């Protein structure tokens, strides 16, 4: 894969990943915003309304018909949370031109994507009230529906409690009460602000031919735009750890959800962070991990147990599903396995197995063009301009000494337990 990055306008970067590996072309345009209570629901609502129709394609059915005409091109609009940033992403994927024999195909799918973003259906120079109202209802349902997936709900609630007072605690779709305050005028004004002030990352994966991206974009997007918003790097610890918080939440659940949240206290820019990635894999990355072996297999305490590193905020979450009465015992065994990592109680074989697993995962990212685009988008956001190969080599260089040193920075911050009992 050949990667190139170029600034083509004020706060606008073009990332091209040229490769013959895929039979399709992927074009993605991402607008980066600072995660905030004021904006979260607005940012989530904008793409939902934009996909309802444009001045050229009045309804979502019209858009779908056009995609079908373009050999079944796939349009994807989403809002994601990356650290304390919110990413509004618009993507379109279609077959590579050599498979369909249509030289202007790339220009046609790109035109549809740009039409969605820059030519929305308006009435009296603002969004249609009907579309905004309907999408507000859908967004409220999505936010309220969080509770239906207890595993994911507990995970997100643990983050909210652990990072209370920090931007990272904000849910990617915001709050119901904030959604209800939005009207079609305020949403349209915010949409204009997104276009004029957001850092923009354009990513293309595949063999892109027959189109000058810069020239086409210059007709749609003002390259000189307004003052681009500043999006600071996350603080990796926004509060002093004066003892550990234990948060319990009662709900009608048949299985308890126990989550231990640790501050890693190592910035992702540090070489030591790669060592912690290996440490996390040894601790709770899979069926050979310490947590799986001791908590689930040996003690039969958990239906599932694993650890996960949240890179941008330098946090590790250990998640488990347990019987309610096993709360105390499971908590202590998990903590003891973390202590063993800190003391270096693991083998060279553990390290090699972990490195092999991580390397396989990194390589597998290259099998999907969306994953490739996501990898380079994450690089751009974190200002880490390293390739897949560079990342793999960095993992391979990690030593046991590095792993122990990284684990010694761990601090238990919050214990969250979703239960069906009153905990005293």
Task: Give your account of this protein's structure.
It is built from 16 helices and 13 strands. By secondary structure, the chain is of the alpha+beta class. The chain has two domains: 2-220, Metalloenzyme, LuxS/M16 peptidase-like (Cytochrome Bc1 Complex, Chain A, domain 1); 245-419, 2-Layer Sandwich (Cytochrome Bc1 Complex, Chain A, domain 1), CATH 3.30.830.10.
Task: Describe the SSE topology.
Elements: E1 2-9, E2 12-18, E3 24-34, H1 40-50, H2 60-69, E4 74-82, E5 85-95, H3 97-100, H4 105-118, E6 122-123, E7 126-127, H5 129-144, H6 150-162, H7 176-181, H8 184-197, E8 200-205, H9 213-220, E9 245-250, E10 256-263, H10 271-284, H11 290-298, E11 302-310, E12 315-322, H12 327-342, H13 348-365, H14 369-382, H15 388-396, H16 400-407, E13 411-419
Parallel strand pairs: 2-8, 9-13
Antiparallel strand pairs: 1-2, 3-5, 3-8, 4-5, 6-7, 10-12, 10-13, 11-12
Helix pairs in contact: 1-5, 1-8, 10-13, 10-16, 11-12, 13-15
């Amino acid at each position: 894969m050949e990667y190139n990055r170029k600034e083509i306008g004020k706060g606008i970067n073009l990332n091209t990943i040229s490769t013959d590996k895929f039979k399709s072309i992927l074009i993605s345009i991402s607008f980066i915003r600072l995660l905030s209570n004021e904006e979260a629901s607005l940012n989530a609502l904008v793409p939902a309304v934009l996909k309802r129709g444009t001045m050229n394609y009045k309804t979502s059915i019209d858009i779908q018909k056009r995609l079908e005409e373009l050999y079944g091109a796939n349009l994807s609009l989403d809002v994601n949370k990356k650290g304390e940033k919110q990413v509004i992403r618009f993507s379109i994927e279609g077959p590579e031109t050599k498979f369909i024999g249509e030289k202007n195909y790339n220009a046609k799918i790109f035109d549809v994507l740009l039409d969605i973003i820059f030519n929305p259906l308006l009435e009296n120079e603002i969004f249609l009230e009907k579309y905004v109202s309907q999408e507000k209802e859908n967004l409220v349902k999505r936010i309220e529906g969080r509770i239906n997936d207890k595993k994911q709900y507990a995970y997100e609630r643990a983050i909210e409690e652990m990072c209370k007072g920090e931007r990272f605690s904000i849910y990617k779709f915001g709050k119901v009460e904030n959604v209800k305050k939005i009207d079609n005028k305020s949403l349209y004004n915010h949409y204009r602000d997104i276009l004029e002030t957001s850092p923009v990352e354009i990513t293309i994966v595949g063999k892109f031919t027959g189109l000058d991206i810069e020239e086409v974009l210059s007709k749609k997007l003002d390259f000189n735009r307004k003052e681009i918003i500043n999006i600071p790097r996350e603080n990796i610890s926004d509060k002093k750890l004066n003892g550990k918080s234990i948060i319990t939440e009662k709900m009608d659940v048949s299985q308890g959800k126990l989550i231990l949240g640790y501050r890693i206290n190592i910035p992702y820019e540090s070489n030591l962070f790669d060592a912690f990635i290996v440490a996390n894999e040894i601790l709770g990355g899979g069926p050979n991990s310490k947590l799986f072996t001791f908590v689930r297999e040996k003690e039969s305490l958990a239906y599932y147990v694993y650890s996960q590193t949240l890179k941008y905020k330098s946090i590790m979450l250990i998640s488990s599903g347990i019987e309610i009465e096993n709360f105390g015992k499971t908590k202590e065994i998990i903590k003891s396995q973390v202590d063993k990592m800190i003391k270096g109680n693991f083998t060279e074989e553990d390290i090699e197995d972990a490195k092999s697993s991580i390397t396989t995962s990194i390589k597998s990212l290259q099998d999907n063009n969306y994953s490739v685009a996501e990898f380079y988008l994450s690089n751009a956001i974190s200002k880490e301009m390293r390739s897949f190969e560079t990342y793999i080599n960095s993992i391979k260089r990690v030593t046991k000494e590095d792993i122990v040193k990284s684990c010694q920075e761990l601090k238990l911050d919050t214990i969250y337990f979703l239960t069906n009992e009153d905990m005293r």
